[in-house]
Amino acid sequence: MGFGVVTVKIYNLVQILFMQNRRRFLRMSALGAAGIVASGKINVQAAEAPEPREKGTVPVVVSTWNFGKEANAAAWKVLAADGHSLDAVEQGVWVPEADPTNQSVGLGGRPDRDGHVTLDACIMDDQYRCGSVACLEHIVHPISVARKVMEKTQHVMLVGEGALQFALENGFKKENLLTEKSKKEWEDWLKTSKYEPVMNIENKGTKPFPGDERNHDTIGMLAIDSKGRVSGACTTSGMAFKLRGRVGDSPIIGAGLFVDNEIGAATSTGVGEEVIRCVGSHLVVELMRHGHSPTEACKKAVERLVKFNPEKAKNIQVGFLAVNKAGVVGAWALQKGFTYSVRTNDTDTVFDAGYFYENVK
Ligand code: SD4
Predict the structure, then answer these.
(1) Beta-strand relationship, 257-260 and 230-236
(2) How remote is the CA of residue 49 from the centroid of ligand 1, in Å?
(3) How far, in Å, are 165, 186, 294, 328, 329 from residue 57 at the CA level?
């Protein structure tokens, strides 16, 4: 046996030992974290931690915000029939994308400052395959265009005109996405605006605050199917009245969404610029990889935003939602009001996420 072969064998042995120990460590950490949450030592402001969020169960689908409940129902049909989590998340987010009364996703989304509805979406499966579209106009289901990018091209991301061209070439229909209601809101905004993009415009003036029942926001959805395959989807019309061409976190793999089939998945909502800055969803998944529970991982990611810029963090909303491989779900946000919807065999519930501030009204 040559020296090279021996070296490779030793390397392989070390890798196996490392993986075994790591799994043991992760199991212990998950148990430890669940115990800490249950004992109330951390998570003081968080919602209750009822079963099965801390216990974990598979299959499971989770979505950002309370309107995720309806989307979860569509995803659950796929999961309950032992379907693939990728189909579940795609079909789940079709619901808000096609809903004209939801003004932050797909059809009926609030336009940019020039009156164009531009959509961002991405999707990722259990094989590290992913697809994304950004600043896409006229297509009701950007998530399905993102899936086509993943399945039919060598690329991960298409934007603007090119994304629209690709969608039309693949049979998607060109439609007007600007509803009368969103147009009216935009026209009202124009009266007072100086064409300056205002961060978190949904929170200002008479506009409802994200998380408020009147407000519907970006949907990020994560699912694990009966075979243990993890997938995720994220889709949005982005921040209302944004600069033309602005892209948020939602279509950016690692920012708005990240899936690692060995660990779990995470997604985000809120001011995308801040999520991009900390590569939020990837950060949450990596924190879970290092043994943190989903709740702790989301909290730590939010803490990083507070640390970067506490003054800004006080006045904006960012929320993270995560699920680990065992189906344990957790979430945390900068501001009070971030809710998330969980569907499993024995629950169909909207939960309040933990938070740091109550400043934004
Ligand atoms: C974005 N994260 O475009 C999205 C929008 C959002 O509350 O979630 N708004 O930045």
Answers:
(1) unpaired
(2) 26
(3) 41, 43, 14, 7, 9
Ligand 1 residue neighbourhood (C-beta within 6 Å): 210, 217-218, 236, 238-239, 248-250, 269-272
Instruction: Please report the sign of the dihedral spanned by the C-alpha atoms of residue 234, residue 239, residue 241, residue 242.
Output: negative
pLDDT score recorded for residue 54: 67
Q: What is the pLDDT of residues 240-297, one digit of tens each?
A: 888 999 999 999 999 999 999 999 999 999 999 999 999 999 999 999 999 999 999 9
- Is-contact 200 316, C-beta < 8 A? yes
Fold held by 60-357:
Glutamine Phosphoribosylpyrophosphate, subunit 1, domain 1 (3.60.20)
User: Which are the catalytic amino acids?
Assistant: 218
- What pLDDT was estimated at residue 349? 95
Residue nearest to ligand 1 atom 5, measured at CA? 238
Tokens matching residue 258: 């990240």
The neighbour count for residue 170, using CB atoms within 10 Å, is 12
Centroid of ligand 1 to alpha carbon of 302 (angstroms) = 15
Give the residue among 74, 99, 117 at the shortest CA–CA distance from 240: 117
Q: What pLDDT, on the 0 to 100 scale, is given for residue 192?
A: 83
**For residue 68, which of 38, 96, 26, 40 has the smallest C-alpha distance?**
96
> By alpha-carbon position, which residue is closest to atom 3 of ligand 1?
238
**Residue 19 banded pLDDT, cuts 50, 70, 90:** very low
CA of 265 to the centre of ligand 1 (A): 18
